[in-house]
Amino acid sequence: MTPRINFVTLGVADVGRARAFYERLGLKASSASNPQVAFFDINGVVLGLFGYASLAEDAGLEAGEPPAFRGMSLAWNAASEAEADAIMAQAETAGARIVKPAQKVFWGGYSGYFADPDGHLWEVAYNPYFPFDAMGRLVLP
Amino acid sequence: MTPRINFVTLGVADVGRARAFYERLGLKASSASNPQVAFFDINGVVLGLFGYASLAEDAGLEAGEPPAFRGMSLAWNAASEAEADAIMAQAETAGARIVKPAQKVFWGGYSGYFADPDGHLWEVAYNPYFPFDAMGRLVLP
User: Fold this and answer.
1) Any chain B CB within 8 A of the CB of A134?
2) Is B2 in Cβ contact with A27 (below 8 Å)?
3) CATH classification of B7-55, choosing from 2.40.30.10, 3.10.580.10, 3.10.180.10, 2.40.30.170?
4) Could you give the ipTM of this predicted complex?
């Protein structure tokens, strides 16, 4: 059995607020969503939004206070620097906080970061070394 | 532009140790990997492993100490309860810590959690309501 990422679940303070943010960003919630949980199909992965404390409790962990950095980032890759800029602007309009404006970076690409209303970190990147396939997925060497 | 999850990057204490864990779990690292970063194609999403402090620094955030709960989980869905048990056993053999043994849960499915060597939380779940497509992706209503 080879690992798959079927779900990325983000713990949020208010499912309705988080859902509205991702809807403004252009996603459509599944009809299986309810006030306690929201599901989005995002290029073949389910993005789940669930209460921060409830998610911790589900795993039997102490929730604690959400730290600014959580050891993880998601990335939404763009096809060009201009598209990365447009995505950052779209996210800001939807209510994201710009953590780092998109800029040329040491590895030869172009990248910025935004945080969703719960502080989950998204990188927006143009990576000239990893092309896209027809489905918008990156092709690794 | 509709959001995509192209990358899930996990901050790790030791890229070589984390890479070896995910290789034991059955993934093959891209040839673009190097001692500072590892890339795996995992059903169309890139799983990236990068230094915990380096990832924080890339976003301009303070790394802090990795908390036990980070407000997020990944899920690897199984086609049956038996497959979920087998995945949990496979993860434990590869060096994961079992956070919650797989068991029947309130929403009608079957789920457990393991943590990778850096504490990143993976749920292993059988969800009878969300079937798989031919590519092993969940189909939402």
Assistant:
1) no
2) yes
3) 3.10.180.10
4) 0.96
